[in-house]
Amino acid sequence: MIRLAMMDGWALLTVDRPEARNALNLETLEQLDASLKELEQLESLRALVLTGAGERVFISGGDLKEFERIRGMEAARQMSSRYQEVLNRLERFPVPVVAAINGHALGGGCEVALACDFRIMAEEATLRFKQVQMGLVTGWGSGPRLLSLVGYAQAMHLLLLGEEVDAKTALAVGLAHDVAPREQLDERVEAWIRKLMAAPPLAARSVKQLLQKWRGMPLAEAQKLEREHFAALWETEDHWEASRATLEKRRPVFKGR
Fold first, then answer.
1. What is the Cα–Cα distance from 107 to 142, expressed in whole angstroms?
2. Residues 126/166, Cβ–Cβ less than 8 Å
3. What's the CA gap between 9 and 32, in Å, rounded?
4. How many CB atoms lie within 10 A of CB 113?
5. Burial tier of 186 (Cβ tally within 10 Å: 0-12, 13-18, 19+)
6. Is the C-alpha dihedral spanning 15, 169, 198, 189 positive or negative?
7. Which of 86, 229, 243, 256 could form an S-S bond across to 201 if both were Cys, CB 3.0 to 4.6 Å?
8. 226 Cβ neighbours under 8 A, 6+ residues apart
9. In this structure, are residues 116 and 97 in contact, taking their beta carbons and an 8 Å threshold?
10. For 120, which DSSP code?
């Protein structure tokens, strides 16, 4: 199941399936999709955190007991498409999404993590793209994300060999943004949330939209889109508050307007 907790300005989604090592089955995937749709409507939301229940596993991938019943190329294609749709929704979520990787992320668990904007790992956590060892490739949309994130050489290493990557190595190659001792993970994630929430809300949403749209876009088209967002933000209260605060040597007070 997916548990939702509303915090002060941000939300926490937890994959809680201890009997299946937090594996995603179709029912849990639909719950995740429904939660994202609900949260998308909250204009006051500033950030989202996604994690797994317990201390040992973030998400262990897909539910193999359920997947054993999927037979035929068309059924596999439909399953892959649905998981891609939901993780694309996660990636396009209007505010920054932080993956709090509390334990091992295996196969599809890595795919979920890569659909998030930031990945904060416990020191004991690991990443492992084990799809190739199941006779498969990534199927939930993370192959292109990984290639864009770490480049061809690292993507080839990670996807073809399927070796376990510890948190320190993940940080070094750009898969993680921060690493903390497990007992300090929640505190470290909340520190990141405070930093993210300190940004002007409208500008933060625009930054995320632009970065996603720029990928694969011709330079001239990307710059035109940048101009439009820049001009729209220029006339917001937050922009002029930041300008006045700078001149007055004080902290700005952003209102999301």
1. 10
2. yes
3. 19
4. 25
5. middle
6. positive
7. 256
8. 210, 214
9. yes
10. E
What Rg, from alpha-carbon coordinates, does the chain have? 19
* Residue 141 structure tokens: 């949309």
**Residue 215 · residue 148 · CB < 8 Å:** yes
Give the H/E segment covering residue 189.
helix 185-197
Closest CA to 57 of 82, 12, 24: 24
- Widest pairwise Cα distance in the chain: 66
Query: Do 97 and 50 touch, CB atoms closer than 8 A?
Result: yes
Q: In a structure prediction context, what are the per-residue pLDDT tens digits for the chain, which is 257 residues long?
A: 999 999 999 999 999 999 999 999 999 999 999 999 999 999 999 999 999 999 899 999 999 889 888 888 888 999 999 999 999 999 999 999 999 999 999 999 999 999 999 999 999 999 999 999 888 899 999 999 999 899 999 999 999 999 999 999 999 999 999 999 999 999 999 999 999 999 999 999 999 999 999 988 887 888 888 888 888 888 889 998 888 888 898 989 998 88
Residues 6+ apart with CB under 8 A from 87: 111, 112, 115, 140, 141, 142
